[in-house]
Amino acid sequence: MARGDAGGVSLPGKVQITTGARLHIGPLANAAETGRDFGGVGLMVSAPSCRVVVSTSESDTITAPDAIYDRVAKVRDQCRTSDAWKPCQIEVVESIPQHHGFGGGTQLSLAIATAMARLNQDDSNTFKLARRVGRGLRSGLGIHGFEYGGFLVDGGKSMPNSIGGLSARNNFPDEWTLLLISPGGSEGLSGEREVQAFRDLSPMSITDTSHLCRLVLMRMLPAISEQDFCEFADAVGEFGQRVGEYFSPAQGGVFSSQRMSDLADQLGREGIRGVAQTSWGPTIAAFFPTEQEAILKHSELTSDEVWADCSIIIATAMNRGAEVVEL
């Protein structure tokens, strides 16, 4: 359904945006003395997902879970670049859990910003919209993920106020499947606590940055292109361990949750090598070469009383950008 504006141009009356979650396996640098800073490696996945419907309305209304209501209102106000922007109704149909390492804040913000721009004939691209709503202060992975999907390498920020450049982007093998496991009642660092953690951390050494870059350039990316699951799993597990050791002073260990650390150890003893925390956690991602193997492990974990209270999501890669539908 569309309606005409005063000039006769047909504009959508309702826009639906659907996107996935961003996994952030870790940065490539922090407080770099030379060259680009931050950077990182990540993957867009199909679940959990974010779906937002924005429509023109006589007055502003929001339908969203209490936990994200204020964020939705803030993003709406940030998006309005002039009084000419129309009132709108924002409905968050599906939302990504906040502060669990899924990059839900960026996906939600960009979904709202994209829909509002469409409704108001604003052709700003994703990166301009990201700046408008204050995303990409460190990592650009969620922004690139919203735009392109897939397995992503953020080459780092060339200037403090820039968005990290996209150095590489690959389709991730469709059959490789993940379990995303989060402990109950726990969240990763966010907000001022996250800012303070970065302030308190020592700069990442050039040795660490070089090692992480080698893992990405000479192991992960070739393994994805050649669909060599074992090589990829080994590399992502080593990457996660190295990054976790660097962030250990801020998060209390290689993993921010002791329970997830214990589970990672258990999976390792079972021969599951591709395990890493996403962002500040507490979620860990475990990679499997087939859906069947992931489903089997999901069944084992959910039937084990030790892990029965955990959230365990089966996910695959999202090898496309956000879906935009004008209704």
TL;DR of this structure?
The protein has 327 residues and is an alpha+beta fold. It is 38% helix and 24% strand.
What do these coordinates show?
By secondary structure, the chain is α+β, with helices and mostly antiparallel strands. The protein has a single domain, classed as 2-Layer Sandwich (Ribosomal Protein S5, domain 2), CATH 3.30.230.120. It has nine helices and 13 strands. The strands form three sheets. Strands 3, 4, 5, 6, 7, 8 and 13 form a seven-stranded mixed beta sheet that branches. The chain has a four-stranded antiparallel beta sheet with strand order 10-11-9-12. Strand 1 (2-4) and strand 2 (10-12) form a beta hairpin. Helix 1 (66-79) packs across helix 2 and helix 6 packs antiparallel against helix 7 (229-251). The longest helix is centred in the last third of the chain and has 23 residues, at 229-251. The chain is globular. The termini are close together. Residues 1-8 have low confidence and may be disordered.
**What can be said about the biggest beta sheet?**
7 strands, mixed
CATH architecture: 2-Layer Sandwich
Radius of gyration: 20 Å
Write the H/E string, N to C: EEEEEHEHHHEEEHHHHEEHEE
- Classified by CATH, the class is Alpha Beta
Give the overall form: globular
Uncertain residue ranges: 1-8
Helix and strand composition category:
alpha+beta
